[in-house]
Amino acid sequence: MFAICRQLKITASDGKRYNTDCLNEKGLRQLLFVLPLKSNKRATIIWLDVLLKRRSSTYDHGMNFAIGSSECHLVINQIQKRNELILELYIDNSKELFHQLYEHKSEIETDLGFELDWRELPEKKASRILITKKVNFNNRNKWQEQFDWLIEKTLKMRAAFKKYL
Description:
The chain is α+β, with helices and mostly antiparallel strands. It is 36% helix and 30% strand. It contains five helices and ten strands, in the order ββββααββββααββα. Strands 5-6-7-8-10-9 form a six-stranded antiparallel sheet, covered by helices on one side. A two-stranded antiparallel ribbon has the order 1-4. It is globular.
């Protein structure tokens, strides 16, 4: 295990600058994974930033994207401990919205072409509707495949849920 505790100033190929204060091995892997997603010039990647109106991102918590409602947003997370990518509709504080969407569960999943994990989380304020993918973050040769999976699923989820918001 190592740590880089100097401020790193990284300029991506699109000219955007990313600053960090201290990175350990996990943080560096996250940074290396997220930078291509943020700076790749492909139209599908730019679509994520522009059309989805990226709300915010950190290297620890992934990327948040607006979906047309103040009550929810799409989130892309990477969970390194479990080697998982997670794409979810995060509903901040509205069990009513969760139930409204759940009433259309079969139509939404039919539109998507895959099943979702519907988590009401009754003891919490938030609810989550998600899909996960097992990955190997250490294998850079698989990163493009992982980006493509995220883009495809994000596009589909945005279109499917937007009808009911």
